Amino acid sequence: MEWDEAWAMVRNTVAYTNHTILPEALETWPVDMFKELLPRIYMIIEEINHRHLQFVRKRYPGDEHKVRAISIIEGGLVHMARLAIIGSHSVNGVAEIHSMILQNTTLRDFYELYPRMFNNKTNGITHRRWLMGANPELSDLIDETIGSRRWHRYPEQLDLLNDYVEDKPFLHKLVDIKTISKKKLADYIQKHNNGLMVDPNSIFDIQVKRIHSYKRQLMNILHIMYQYDRLKHDTSYDMVPTTYFFGGKAAPGYYIAKETIRLINAVGAKINNDPVTRDRLKVAFIENFGVSLGEIVYPAADISEQISTASKEASGTGNMKFMMNGAVTLGTLDGANVEIRDAVGGDDHFILFGLRAEEVLAYYANGSYSAWDEFNSNETVRGVMNQLVNGMYGDFRSLYDYILHSNDEFFIMKDFCAYSEAHEEAMRRYEQRFDWLKSAAVNIANSGRFSSDRTIDEYANEIWRVKPCMIN
């Protein structure tokens, strides 16, 4: 087969979905290694790149900076994401803000070269597992309330629940179902976390996801340390009883993630055994978190922690699973949070805090942020940071040094006070029971757009141009 025919077949067959802007996931391989291990494949990549750069030089004559920016082989490395783009007919991100960041920053040179290739396909989840399977009581209530099971096949019809978000009999049933789910999780924790008793009547505030610095589990646990310190030493401070749950795995060699897990467990061990505060504050780390455990966890949540540094999370799907089960999102404008906030109609049913993506990207671009300035000027931040090294929970200088010596790369200190204020707002709202239950109902009613049925339909129609098989 001639090259042009073969290459056209490849590009028409392949589409590239980007799932992250994190550098460690945009693979590069040293040329010397690649050549030795895969000599024939390397020759093919060289030819692909040669033909690609011929086109680029015609498009941008004399602009060798542009050529280097979009060359597959550059700086002694084979850039795999660049190869994926050049060998595809479509390139998409997995949430609206993620796709915009790809176009405006990460893959900007390629977007300028091939603008019609770029598109967005927001992730989705299967409502058949994460609502109908994981929460059959809620599924039955929805059937009973909207008088139809058609939403099982057409999840967008969950929006019929919007007619009932202020219906008190419906909301009373909704809170009963949430209580059942919380008791299930409480029973699981008692059985699997050394007999830890958690109160199903407390706020269940949950963050379950891969442990990574940009997802900011570290900010979450630092805030819990701050609340505990205030409960102990500030007689004017009180809080709605809250149980904080964490779950997720860390990569085997990811030291800071492992240290974060160690800190969560150290803080939990101290707080959970303090008779002065344990009726108002507890911490549980859910070991070996996975899909089956998720079916217990997501239906039990009151608050969904989606607190990644804005611009870092491609989409997230846990945020959708929590939303579909009636949790209220406390989060940044990152990933699919942006579309969740839009779906529920704004901040009445979403608790927003933190830097915006454009602010984060501006700090990275101009280098104007100083972790030490933030530490020295913010007494609240300095106080909680010092708890890492004063022996209160053990020795966590590893995390203290990480935040300061990496210049607080994910803006934990910068967003800390806003995050604390968001929790104060969450507690205020939770005490207004009718309004809180309405927010839970609004989240469920508007979660249908995040079904993977919609996502798969968009891929089929807009990228692959195939007609799905209709099943009655």
List its salient traits.
Rossmann fold, 3-stranded parallel beta sheet, 6-stranded parallel beta sheet, 12 strands, 2 domains, 9% strand, globular, alpha/beta, 472 residues, 22 helices
Helicity, in percent? 40-55%
The CATH architecture designation of the largest domain is: 3-Layer(aba) Sandwich
CATH topology of the largest domain: Rossmann fold
Shape: globular
Name of the CATH first level of the largest domain: Alpha Beta
Structural class: alpha/beta
Total domain units = 2
Question: Cα-atom Rg, whole angstroms?
Answer: 24 Å
Count the beta strands.
12
CATH superfamily of the largest domain: Glycogen Phosphorylase B
The largest pleated sheet is described as: 6 strands, parallel
Please list the strands of the largest sheet in the order they lie side by side.
9-8-7-10-11-12
- How many H/I helices? 22
- The stretches of 5 or more residues where confidence is low (pLDDT under 50) are none
